[in-house]
Amino acid sequence: MKKEKVITSNAIRDRTASVRWPGGTNAIDSVRTHWPEYLMEGGELALYMFLTCVFATLLRDPASPIHQLISSPILRRAIMGVAIGTTVVTIVTTPWGKQSGGHFNPAMTAAFYRLGKVAFWDAVFYAIAQFSGAAAGVALAAFVLRGGPENNAIRSAVTIPGVYGNAGAIIAEVTISFILMITVLVISNHGTLARYTPYLVGVLYAVFITFETPFSGMSMNPARSFGSAFHAAYWRAIWIYFVAPTVGMLAAAEVFLRVRGGVAPNCAKLHHANGKRCIFRHGIEQHRLKLFDTENRDGDPLEKALMRSTIKARSISEER
User: Fold this and answer.
1) Residue 2, by phi and psi: left (phi above 0), alpha (psi -120 to 50) or beta?
2) Do 145 and 56 meet the contact criterion of CB atoms below 8 Å apart?
3) Nearest to 240 by CA among 140, 163, 167, 138
4) At what angle do helices 27-60 and 73-92 cross, to 10 degrees?
5) Does residue 315 belong to any structural domain of this protein?
6) What SS3 class is residue 275?
7) Which of 96, 251, 232 is nearest to 152 (CA)?
8) Tens digit of each residue's pLDDT (9 = 90 or more) over 154-196
9) Are 38 and 126 in contact (CB under 8 A)?
10) Of 9, 11, 47, 135, which has the fewest CB atoms closer than 10 Å, so is most exposed?
């Protein structure tokens, strides 16, 4: 029996180790098979940044009729929030967003990588596409709007620390990034609520832009801040917007794992119930954190279940 148990355990590990998410395990294979998703992520962030600059120009440029009509700063931020929130929902629910996952945020991609849902090279190329797309979107907005986003009132929609300085910006960015990521993880893994994930994300964007902007400029996205800073050549406190959103979303991933006993989320898509292909990690591997990381404490749960089934089948066979 001991020998059979060892053989069974090894078989389980071999079977589990043989599971791979789509695509190869190196950079070339990843690009060859997943380049459409990489381009989609870049395009999504380019569109997001283009519209962000358009809305910022309309609402913050002193020469804009809308700016002159609306004198209340919080009302301007609320309108900006609704516009950006609607943009986010639209992008996530487009065919591109449904296929790529609709991250358009390297901090979110990093969190899903930590959760075991994204392959290493996919995460790398997603980040490259996201940063490139953000810079391209701002450049396109400056070209289309004839330099409008470049004036001092807008400065390409850069994100900078607000009323409480760097410390306030760090705390604010970590907090809102944590809230966004934990909301995505909880809602997208809830059977009946998963379909509403894009809309709740859009609501969070609207709320954060309305009320959090005075503290940090409301980024939650390293690539978003990079795109504006790159075009404006204005790098003040840029490190905050690289570090704080990433820390906040990774912290949310850790909390999610601990609450679920190590069980990873179902998928890395914000809108999964669609007919588009999915390049993310699925199947037996998604439970591996739970099944094998606790082996030293509780034994191998999958092995125990399979052993029970084997013993039961043998008993039935012997009775016959």
Assistant:
1) alpha
2) no
3) 167
4) 150
5) no
6) coil
7) 232
8) 888 999 999 999 999 999 999 999 999 999 999 999 989 999 9
9) yes
10) 11
Structural tokens at position 221 = 């996205």
> Residue 210: inside a domain, yes or no?
yes
Query: For residue 30, is it within any domain?
Result: yes
Tokens 């459409």, located at residue: 36
CA dihedral angle for residue 215, residue 217, residue 218, residue 222, rounded to 10 degrees = -120
The tally of domains found in the chain comes to 1
* Residue 9 confidence (pLDDT) above 90: no
For position 207, which CATH number holds? 1.20.1080.10
Give a yes or no: residue 10 inside a domain: no
pLDDT at 22 (0 to 100)? 46
Place of tokens 């406190």: 237
Model-wide pTM > 0.85: no
Tokens, residue 242: 């690289």
CA distance 59 to 75: 10
d(CA 114, CA 283): 17
Distance from C-alpha of 208 to C-alpha of 212, rounded to nearest angstrom: 5
Average pLDDT for residues 250-262, to the nearest whole number?
95
Cβ within 8 Å of residue 124, ≥6 positions away: 27
Domain span at residue 265? 26-306
pLDDT one-digit tens code per residue, 38-51: 999 999 999 999 99
Q: Please report the DSSP string for 218-259 in residue order.
A: S---HHHHHHHHHHHT--TTHHHHHHHHHHHHHHHHHHHHHH
